[in-house]
Amino acid sequence: MLKKMTTIHWFRKGLRLHDNPALLASVEENCELRPLFILDPWFVTNARVGSNRWRFLAQTLADLDIKLRDLGSRLFIARGTPEELFPKLFKDWNVQKLTWEVDTEPYSCIRDEKIEKLAKDHNVKVVCRVGHTLYSTEKIIQANLGKTPLTYQSMQSLVSRMGHPPKPVDSLSSLPGSCRINNAMAVNAKYNLPTLAELGVDEGSLQPCLYPGGETEALRRLDKYMMRKTWVCKFEKPKTSPNSLQPSTTVLSPYLKFGCLSPRTMYFRLLEVYKNNSHTQPPVSLLGQLLWREFFYTVGAKTPNFNRMEGNPICRQIPWVRNEKLMKAWEFVFEELLLDADWSLNAGNWMWLSASAFFHQYFRVYSPIAFGKHTDKHGEYIRKYLPQLSKYPDNYIYEPWKAPLSTQKAAGCIIGQDYPKPIVKARHHLQTETLQTRR
């Protein structure tokens, strides 16, 4: 008896059923659908993923699995490298077609090129569709005569000429009988969801989950904010508070990062809210934030070494005095703790804020003292996350080293004894590094 032909849809990002062009392409031939997610050890080794982000991913996969089971399918989790797994899956599952969403990150591009070759060797048709960005980054660059746009203004001009991005495609709301899996595959424990322990997470060390992962929560959160029409229309960044104890933004970024939420769905929902209403404009509006995302994805897609200074043709080369040990410690902890860590956006934002790429304003330096006071004058954020300083009066909470010894004793925290002294003198450091940057 001949094996039934199957199609694999390979979930990487794009962990959703709504507006997923590659997923819809996977059911066009009415073959049995095998939705697949691969736990690739490369990410465990190289991506610096912290416990909260692993939990977010685990919740996202569980949510996706529930939705697929409701359609008569499931999410298959495979462990190992894609290069090792696919040849066996192609054979064992009698695969005729493989679909996935375009990913522009360097590792992903190299990986996908290898898998495309493997698929060709096994007579498997590959279909890729854009879904993680508003537009195809390649088409944006083509519209710019083959050059990567390097300013937000040029990006705005390009997308204005291109018109609105494609509208979201229909959600996968049902599966033909021929696409559904049989009972044996539905209960095959080999492809079960990963546990947090398998992902290296100590559940006992986790803090309460404020932002559950998954498409269900992403759409609920989007609906919640789109109902606040006045807030949406008046949204203006950077007039938000990065150190408030309650978020002053949508907190949709992790859902966009994992593809629980389609950027096109958000884009057109925003247009509905803006219709017939006065509203802020890019670059400061909510729509403007989606265009920032698109901008950094486009630049990151074609810029060598986009996430570092060395070998990066658009980044100013500054001869910093380097301490590799301290740099690696900072870099590791910073990325590990981000719930929405995103290769393109992290790199682009750091270069933008440091004025080391895109434009160069040497005088624009954010003071950790003045900036914090502007949005949290009582230092509530510091009091919560640095409890050693919680009893300091407001006028010293941002500069506790300036407090008289009597005040330090009254607060129960002696600077240099219970809490470290400043590593650098901020004003002297500012003057020194500004001169260094100008060179």
From TrEMBL:
This is Cryptochrome-2-like. PROSITE patterns: PHR_CRY_ALPHA_BETA. Residues 5-134 form the Photolyase/cryptochrome alpha/beta domain. Binds 1 FAD per subunit. Keywords: FAD, Flavoprotein. FAD binds at residues 249-253, 289-296, 340-342. GO terms for molecular function: deoxyribodipyrimidine photo-lyase activity; DNA binding; FAD binding. Its cofactor is FAD. Belongs to the DNA photolyase class-1 family. One of its GO terms (cellular component) is cytoplasm. It holds the Pfam family DNA_photolyase. The lineage of its organism: Eukaryota, Metazoa, Ecdysozoa, Arthropoda, Crustacea. It comes from the Eukaryota.
